[in-house]
Structures are given as structure tokens and as C-alpha cells.
TrEMBL record, chains A, B:
It catalyses: sn-glycerol 3-phosphate + NAD(+) = dihydroxyacetone phosphate + NADH + H(+). Its EC number is 1.1.1.8. It comes from Triticum aestivum (Wheat). One of its GO terms (molecular function) is glycerol-3-phosphate dehydrogenase (NAD+) activity. This is Glycerol-3-phosphate dehydrogenase [NAD(+)]. The active site is at K179 (proton acceptor).
């Protein structure tokens, strides 16, 4: 990465909703302290006119606070709101994407030809949750360029937010995606009132299948990635809270009689569950390769989602528990 | 193992409390089905006289039910209660210990010279929880003799209770012990109301330290063991429910002003928390080897337990998070 302006990296945040504001605040606090970064963090604002008649970007720059999406919290005087996308990114060599995922493609198209050479980007859109000043963690996956990965980790790390890097992009990505399918399984167990023992067993079997599935698809995937925050910790968080878990619980409480679509519409106000669509995509991959029997939990979640199996099936696949020892699983006894 | 009586294995259960009765029921259901086992399961009963004047062992053999410790559940006609320890074990070649741990030593002394040659024993005293007919799992650790391990696994496996075997006795044992220390950390987070994100992070860091500590003590310990039921699943169960978590939560809610001893006495009616004493023992090992800085979570739990640090310290060790990459951890960024 080229590193202009007296050798200091410049950060731009694409997005200024609740998450974008939280990220800008954290980053600005770090860039102010770290000598290798320019203090200023540019935050691209999708411009709105506030009820007062003021523009959102102007309000942010005056009050150093996003009064609409993160009221009551100071962002830091070095967060500069900019309603012009091209101007917001033109000096940056590190871009942080924090917009709703449906806007990413359109934004990227607008950025073509407008960026500095060698610019790097990171996405916080999926998987990363930064609890405000509460201790938490995240994992950054990278390929080869450890120096760049370390630079990003440094930019995000705070005493309450630990960031680790792992050389396993596919593993990190698949953890972020597959955990939502396991969260559906965990939610079904909650809805069936089977207790923590059963839920923990299902989460573990889910983690095992996540690992085996990832390693079958990408032999480069490492076991250790599943011990990282993106693995076991995010899985636990998603299976304890999270909307996939919540809607699946409601699905099981209704005995599968109300569809996921219906419950989603009612409970999530138009948002879609990642887990249901991921389960379908995973099922297609499993079917294509003839792997369904190797992944009873992942398969069963999809078959429950589409109403082919009842919710209780989530704990009824023991008789065909597969031997996953080829990817490092133990040998279950039959 | 010698295998007398027409080649069939004979099982005796040492203990007939709630757990002992649940185990006897499960085992008897399996021995009745499995051709390599003698149907009968002898259950040693610490004899008591019931309010009706009847002996507990006689009542069990008449009603096929332990009306005192597992009322309302049929044990199976092939469970034979025996109040005479020597007689209960004399034909058995597989012993299952399910007594309160303080009685084990005394019982073992009485068994010296009374057992058949080559007899094998398993302990269900710590770590294994068999939810009645709810889906759950367990791990059996073994050394070298895979055939024996498989025999035990077969004896315990049911469609709702999956048993896996791993060639890593030390790893399985240490999982069972160390998880209680992590559960104290998780309980402290609950008591501080820090939410699921923080709790999941602490559980993951705990799992990482469990793994690193085990591997430092016993280089033979395997990473995979921590993906087994005895690792991640039991850790989750213990950190969601469990008395270590519960008392630690109360400790944090009281700001550390009431001691663990006091809270234990009040909440557990004389039972002692495994986690507090294990944390002390682990701390002694860490101090002896000069390893405290490598294991901030395990160390901090002990220092909180003895009142040397406040409960909030559980989330304040990020600045000295160690590099555990020598046992396969990722490199955190500082």
C-alpha cells in the first residue's frame, strides 16, 4: 500500500448510521493516538435534512455528534462528516465499509477510478459487533500480507476491543456465515425447551460441521480459526442472542405451523434472516457434492426451514451421526 | 480385560442416588439390548430405612424404581439393588462409579482384594451430565486401549446420548476441571451485566487458556479434545447454567463485598464450589512455573476470588493479553 502525506495513513469510513458512527468514533480515538495514522477520520454521510432544517453532515461537524443515529455520544473532533462520497475518499488509503449490505455494490461502482492507488478496504458489514466500551473481540482474516493485517488490527484495537489477525480469509468468512445456520438450530432447541445441555451439544455439533464443511471446501482453512473470536465466541453470541435464534425459537414454539417467511415479516419488520438463506445455499452445495449425510445438522436445519421435517428433528439425527475424523473430528460410537 | 460368564461383560454401578439411578437405568436399557453384555446391572445401594419401615434396596427391587432419589421413573427389571458392596461387585468386570466424590476413597479401600482380575472402572462423578431422555453428549478419554474405550462408549450410548472417545485422558480430565474456573469468569460478567458479547469473549479466552495450560502441562494433549463435548459443549453448559456461574454472579452483584465462602454457604447449603478451589490450585501451578502472565484469565479469577482484585478486573487484562501462539493461539495485536 502506498503511504502518502508524510507517511501517515488516512482513514475514511463509508457509512454514518449507528454502526458507522460507532466505528468512526473508535477509529478517530485511535488515529489521534497512533503516530502512523493521520488524526482525521472522514465519514461519508448519506445526506439527510433534519426536522430542524439543518443538514445531518453539518450538524455532525458542529456538534461532533450524530444526533440522529448515535445521539448523546461524542464522536471526537477529528471525525469529519462529508456528504460527498468522492471527496470523502479521495485522500484515504484505508477504507472502512459500514453501510447496509444492499448499498455496497452501488457505492463501489461510484468509487471506480476515484480512489488512490494501493488503497485497502475492510468491511464491518457482517460479523463484527463493537459493543460500546464493553469488552469484546474480533478477528481479521488476511491472505499473505501480514503487515497490512496488522495495520488494520492496530487501527481497531482498544483496551476493550481486542482484534486478532489470522491468515485464513476463507475460514473467517465461513465462520461469519455458517454460524447463522447453527443459531437457527440453537433457537429450535430453545423453542423445544430442551435446556442448556442439549443446546450446548447442538452448538458444538454445529461448530464441528462448520469446521468440517469449511475444510472440505477450502483445504487451506485452519482448525485454529474456529478457536478465534470469529469462531467459538461469535457462535456463542449468535446462539445466545441474535435474530436467527429468536425467530427459530418462535418457529419451534409454533410447531413449525407458521413459516419462517411469516415469522420474519412479523418479528423483523422486513429484514431477512441470514441463517435461512445460508442454510439453503449450504444445502445446495451439500447436495451437489453428495455430502448431506456428512452434515446432518446443516442439512436438517434447511429441511426444517422449508417444512420438510418437524422442528423436533433437530435433535434426532444421532443414528446417522457421521464420522468426520477425516477432518479431525473424533470417532463417535455407534 | 478378562471376560468371564460366557463371554458377556457384567456391569455394576457403585451408587444409587439420583445420578446413580439415572445411570443404572440407562445402562440396564443398553445391556438388555447389547449381546456382548449380561442383562443384569447390579446397583450398590447405601442402605437406608424408608419412612414406611421398608429398606431402600428392597423397595427398589420390588417396585423397580428408586422411590427416594428418582421417584416416578422405572429403572428396568434388570437393575438389581444390592446393599452389600462386596456382593454387588464380585461378578462385575465393568464398574461405574457414581457416588459423591468424598466417598470414593473409602469405597475403593473396601474393594481392595474383592474384585475380579482385569476389572475396568469409569467415573461419572465429574463432568458428565445425563439429561433424562434429552439429547446430550459425553466424551470418554482413554490411553492406548481403544477397544476398552469403545466398549464403554457402547455401554453408554443411546439415541439421545452420544458418547465419543478420544485418546487423550489428560485433555478430557483438564477440560472437566478447568471449565469451572472459566464458569466463574462467565458468572462475574453476568453479575456485571456486560451482555452476551462480552460473555462469549470471556468464554473463548477461557477456552484458549484451558487449551494452552493443558498443553503446557501435558504436551500429549490434543487440540481436538477441546472441540469435543468435554471441551466446548461442557464449557457452554457450565457457563450458561451451573452453580459456579451462579455464585460468581452473586459475588459480582455484591461488588465482591461478600466472600465466596459466605455466598457458597448461603446458596449451596454446605456444598463447595469446584471452580474456586480449582482456581487456587491452578494459580499455584502458574506461580510455581512463573506462568501467571501467560494466563491472565485463570490468574485473574483466583485473584478476584480471594479479594485481591475487584470483580471488574475480569474484563481488564487486555493490555497484558499474552501471545499464546506457541501452543497454537493467534497473535493478538498490541
Amino acid at each position: 500500500m502506498e503511504n502518502g502525506h508524510a507517511g501517515k495513513h488516512r482513514v475514511a469510513v463509508i457509512g454514518s448510521g449507528n454502526w458507522g458512527s460507532v466505528a468512526s468514533r473508535l477509529l478517530a480515538s485511535n488515529t489521534a493516538k497512533l503516530p502512523s495514522f493521520h488524526d482525521e477520520v472522514r465519514m461519508w454521510v448519506f445526506e439527510e435534512t433534519l426536522p430542524t432544517g439543518e443538514k445531518l453532515s453539518e450538524s455532525i461537524n458542529q456538534a461532533h455528534e450524530n444526533c440522529k443515529y448515535l445521539p448523546g455520544i461524542k464522536l471526537g473532533t477529528n471525525v469529519i462528516a462529508d456528504p460527498d462520497l468522492e471527496s470523502a475518499v479521495k485522500d484515504a488509503d484505508m477504507l472502512v465499509f459500514v453501510t447496509p449490505h444492499q448499498f455496497v455494490e452501488g457505492i463501489c461502482k461510484k468509487l471506480v477510478g476515484k480512489l488512490r492507488p494501493g488503497v485497502e478496504a475492510i468491511s464491518l458489514i457482517k460479523g463484527m459487533e463493537i459493543a460500546v466500551e464493553k469488552f469484546s473481540e474480533a478477528t481479521i482474516g488476511y491472505r499473505e500480507d501480514k503487515e497490512a493485517a496488522n495495520r488494520w488490527a492496530k487501527l481497531f484495537t482498544t483496551p476493550y476491543f481486542l482484534v486478532a489477525i489470522v491468515e485464513d480469509i476463507e475460514g473467517v468468512e465461513l465462520c461469519g456465515t455458517l454460524k447463522n445456520v447453527v443459531a437457527i438450530a440453537a433457537g429450535l432447541v430453545d423453542g423445544l425447551d430442551m435446556g442448556n445441555n442439549t443446546k450446548a451439544a447442538i452448538m458444538r455439533i454445529g461448530l464441528r460441521e462448520m469446521r468440517a464443511f469449511s475444510k472440505l471446501l477450502f483445504p487451506s482453512v485452519r482448525d485454529n480459526t474456529f478457536f478465534e473470536s470469529c469462531g467459538v465466541a461469535d457462535l456463542i453470541t449468535t446462539c445466545l442472542g441474535g435474530r436467527n435464534r429468536r425467530v427459530a425459537e418462535a418457529f419451534a414454539r409454533n410447531g413449525g405451523k407458521r413459516s419462517f417467511d411469516e415469522l420474519e415479516a412479523e418479528m423483523l419488520h422486513g429484514q431477512k434472516l441470514q441463517g435461512v438463506s445460508t442454510a439453503r445455499e449450504v444445502y445446495e452445495v451439500l447436495t451437489y457434492h453428495g455430502w448431506q449425510e456428512l452434515f446432518p445438522l446443516l442439512s436438517t436445519v434447511h429441511e426444517i426451514c422449508i417444512g420438510q421435517l418437524p422442528p423436533t428433528s433437530i435433535v434426532e439425527y444421532s443414528e446417522h451421526t457421521p464420522n468426520l475424523s477425516f477432518v479431525g473430528g473424533s470417532t463417535p460410537c455407534y
